[in-house]
Amino acid sequence: MRPPLKAVRGSEFPPGFQWLNTDAPLRLSDLRGRLVLLSFFTSSCINCRHILPDLRRLNEQFGDALVIIGVHSGKFDAERDLENVRAAVARLGISYPVVNDPDMELWQKYRIGAWPTLVLVGPNGRIVLERPGEAAYRPLADAVTAVLRDAEQADMLRTEPLPAPPPEPDAPTDGPLLFPAKVHADEASGLLAIADAGHNRIVIANAEGEVVDVAGTGEAALQDGSFDAACFASPRGLTIEGTVVYVADTDNHALRRLDLRRRVVERIAGTGEQPSAWVAGGSGTRVALNSPWDIVVLRNYLYITMSGSHQIWRMDVRSGYIEAYIGSGHGALRDGTRATAALAQPTGLTTDGIRLVFVDSDASAVRWANLPPGNAVDTYVGAGLYEFGDRDGAARSALLQHPTGIAYYAGDLFVSDTCNNRVKRLNPRSARIETLLGTGERGDRDGEAAAFNHPSGMSAAGGRLFVADTNNHAIRTASVDGGAVKTLRLHPEERLLSGR
Prior knowledge:
The structure is a single chain. By secondary structure, this protein is mostly beta strands. It is built from 6 helices and 34 strands. The protein starts with 17 loop residues before the first strand and ends with a helix.
């Protein structure tokens, strides 16, 4: 049944708003005769990330008949800054026009209540359909097909091609790394594993930056095989165990295993498709995973932050059995037992051997969960989904802003406070947190007064911190005691640049 056209007109874009991926600001009135799909999103939201494949599919199916416009209504303060939006648009691979809505003006005009929400505006300027949440392709495709048919019959449809939007020039494509998401430093081997997410590959180097090997062709796909033939899609968390690297292959919704000796990649969990409903445990490659983001190994188990389902999962590496381990699946900040606690987009994970410690990025929280025989889940830092800021001191009253990385070393926890552009140290014994690295300003500066730009994954080994400074396309290093920050120079660069 075709959805009826509503009587509500789409609100015009206010003058003076900042636009990306277009030569000039757009106006709904200039798009009359076309279908316009407004995608309200915020770059930190995992659910917003999940609808991007649907939007790409709709764009491929309908071409110039459907104009997709992103409306970035940021949740966190840092997300409202145009340069941070610009970097996020490049990092997410968004090619359609995006308007920045920093004060939620368009959000309020359209009475949006959740990220993501899609609003379809018909050729007559009236709203046809509003759909919050994921799994958007089928209802949108049906609605667009129906409205196009009606518009063609009424001779309302404009069919001339739209000019291609200019690409945003700010994301470099010729450097060694592109939006590195995570890094793992292995004390035993002296190796680093780097998730070069923007290049869809894994880089193996030593602690001084000498490149040892590279896995992945650079194509965003799910393909096993040799290091030279395998493909990843925006890989993130990784960990080294002997001569094996385990990888959370986020956009492939899969776990991968890299054999460093044989130079072979294989999928060990995930079907390659995101599940559309609650998923029970089972044999690894038969179970659909939901945006695995980070990973640690402990006593023959892999623990995985399943960001898309707001849980932590566990996989037995001997049997291949994988299942939800912590979290009810409801996105919230609620303590309790492993089964009853609610998590909010966990993205970073570490362990001291007794507890799992993780960051819930959507709640700007640092939390912990007892390993057996304990069963408790509790919170070090964090008060709620909309409680965020930049405040050091007692953990219970401290504030972070969308942290995405965490590492344990010698009794301390180190946190990538991503949207505050800082690295912080949390002492579990005193329950206090303090800024260790970073002035808080966005930048690319080494030294004592270092500046970061969206620091994400981190690891520690040999008395050193290694930080994936995502928007600076670099790995930064410093002592675990603080002091001067240095940028790790990966060499020889020719090995990283060849084949791209």
